[in-house]
Amino acid sequence: MSNTLTKPLGRLRLGVNIDHVATVRNARGGAYPDPLRAALLAQQAGADGITAHLREDRRHITDSDIEALSANLEIPLNFEMAATAEMQAIALRHKPHAVCIVPEKREERTTEGGLDVARDENALAHFIAPLRQAGCRVSLFIAADKAQVESAARIGASVVELHVGPYCDAIEDGDQAFAAAEFARIREMAALGHSLGLEVHAGHGITYNSVQSLSALPEIMELNIGHFIIGEAIFIGLEAAILKMRALMNEARTETFGEGAA
Ligand code: PXP
């Protein structure tokens, strides 16, 4: 299936992931830098949402960060979590705008792969039911793979976030052949997801070098970006890093689809 849309489905949203502000804080313990302060600054700079991943080992974001974000943000919170009973209870307590279910292994440095929805279809269907009932938009973080997209649609997820890490890493490494093959898969799966009634997001590893090609896909409605923006903020400041990412997204939408598409 290839893209049939000649215009984007809507404005491309930028979700800013603030996990690594907490990573820096936790390197020393104590209270700074404060992820809530970063989130409020991102909100002021035009972020459309804030993403935070409460990991089982609390290596960056903590329970009190989630409380502070829930209480103080005006833009939507996208709460990333593993499919565990503990995280489900926390999500049901805070009822964030969106819950993004990710796979999690203690030994990994970051989220390494997508969820295997096809394998765990029944268990995930039961797991997300109470979250859906509580009014959270349930997003599943999956590889750009047909079986995964189809399973996500079958179990009633609202959103799939396509794991674009391998594509973005290939761009950074200059591996053009691999990047082209990955991009073709992402494009196909974005179109398939949309055709099955899913909202399609993309995330992981996005930088200034990869954001524009992804922004040019008409079905993609949201990009979630963290590590690169927080790293860039060290050099140019958080507001400037977000504004530059936003400008690149707008430029790609406009160049691909014409004025008014950003
Ligand atoms: N989306 C999901 C589901 C993720 O797990 C992550 C990483 O926590 C991101 C987006 C952001 O990725 P990055 O920090 O590489 O921009």
Set down the secondary structure blueprint:
Layout: E1 13-17, H1 19-28, H2 35-44, E2 49-53, H3 63-72, E3 77-81, H4 85-94, E4 98-101, H5 121-133, E5 137-142, H6 146-154, E6 159-163, H7 165-173, H8 176-195, E7 199-203, H9 211-215, E8 220-225, H10 227-236, H11 238-257
Parallel strand pairs: 1-2, 1-8, 2-3, 3-4, 4-5, 5-6, 6-7, 7-8
Helix pairs in contact: 2-3, 7-8, 10-11
Pyridoxine-5'-phosphate (PXP) binds at residues 17, 19, 53, 80, 100, 102, 110-111, 141, 161, 203-206, 224-228.
Give a structural overview:
The protein has an eight-stranded parallel β-barrel, surrounded by seven helices. It has helices spanning 19-28, 35-44, 63-72, 85-94, 121-133, 146-154, 165-173, 176-195, 211-215, 227-236, 238-257; strands at 13-17, 49-53, 77-81, 98-101, 137-142, 159-163, 199-203, 220-225. The two termini are 25 Å apart. The radius of gyration is 17 Å and the shape is globular. It has one domain (13-254): Alpha-Beta Barrel (TIM Barrel). It contains eleven helices and eight strands. Helix content is 48%, strand content 16%. Strand 2 (49-53), helix 3 (63-72) and strand 3 (77-81) form a beta-alpha-beta unit. The longest helix is centred in the C-terminal third of the chain and has 20 residues, at 176-195. By secondary structure, the protein is α/β, with parallel strands linked by helices. The mean pLDDT is 95. The structure holds pyridoxine-5'-phosphate. Pyridoxine-5'-phosphate is lined by residues 17, 19, 53, 80, 100, 102, 110-111, 141, 161, 203-206, 224-228. The site of pyridoxine-5'-phosphate has 19 residues, from strand 8 and helix 10.
